[in-house]
Amino acid sequence: MPRLVMKFGGTSVADLSRIEAAAARVRREVEAGHDVIVVVSAMAGKTNELVGWVRDTSVLYDAREYDAVVASGEVVTAGLMALRLQQMGVDARSWQGWQVPVRTTSAHGAARIEEIGTEAIAARFAQGVRVAVVAGFQGISAENRVTTLGRGGSDTTAVAFAAAFDAERCDIYTDVDGIYTTDPRIEDRARKLDRIAYEEMLELASLGAKVLQTRSVELAMRYKVRLQVLSSFEDKPGTLVCDEEEIMESKVVSGVAFQRDEAKMTLISVADRPGIAAAIFGPLADAGVNVDMIVQNISEDGRTDMTFSCPVAEVPRARAALETAMAEGHINYHGLDADTDVAKVSIVGIGMRSHAGVAQKMFRALADEGVNIKVITTSEIKTSVLIDRKYLELAVQALHDAFELDKAG
Ligand code: ASP
Ligand code: MG
Q: What is the 3 state secondary structure string of 316-327?
């Protein structure tokens, strides 16, 4: 029988009546002839509560016990979902990560799935069980300890099962009805996309991050799992995240993404010599600073300015790392400037690969609104600019308008 993976996020299993509504959707797919793997999250708010309990018990907690505690939220919903399905007359059984087994690395709190044993569940399907309910977000390490996959990890569980069981599609039920051209809270003409390519979805992480764990999109792209994001509160199709070959409508730009809390840091007058970039960005990487854009200025008298962007919250860490590198004599600069009032705005689209003049159109639209651009970077399918944060909304609206994203195809 064709297989389908249906994943329900926390708000979709928030209480017993929501679990019942989700189970009704599962039954519909079973009646339509699918064998279904249901992947569940913990009830809304549960994982936060569990994490809080761990932290309140132990500040420097043992990560193995953190996983033992936080994995329990999904265990509860998996059992309840199986019970509800049985009540509805559907032959269902639940599986915890270790029972499947979902084999992962030993990186507790951020484990990666290495292998999914399909035999046990496949055998039950062969015996006539129609639904396997799997606790998301968890697995088991080589040391036989329970692991978790990082916040939002049930999405990755779902995609991994879809790949392992060769499912027709992986439906991610959530509290939004799809992926939009930009954040509808900023631009009320934002439009829900019918389809989006994996690569675009990865670049639109700032819009989609709360909807899909980034790792799940990477996995879906690697194994070509068709992923649908849809609402469990309404009955309508969502957004299909798929291979670009499946996308007929060819807009050059698909969406406008943004990061509100960015900072721009500049090392003023650093010695321009081979190895200087490595000497600067090595310590930043070691300090866990997520550097995004990098610009090196023209050199004068063997010295240059080096500018980079990172999240505002990481500025103190970046500053400390650079000051240490300076004190230890690895780098030498005349000043360190931090502008913490910037935001990043990006246009994203696979069509940018084959169209010229897209970035120019972006710059024109911003100029027409009097928005000054501080830093620009481009990749094959994305152009990003840093601007003053106070112009973020204006810039997003102007770009949405310039690329006519409110209009379909
Ligand atoms: N319950 C876990 C979390 O909140 C995993 C998930 O829901 O995807 O991060
Ligand atoms: Mg989620």
A: HHHHHHHHHHHH
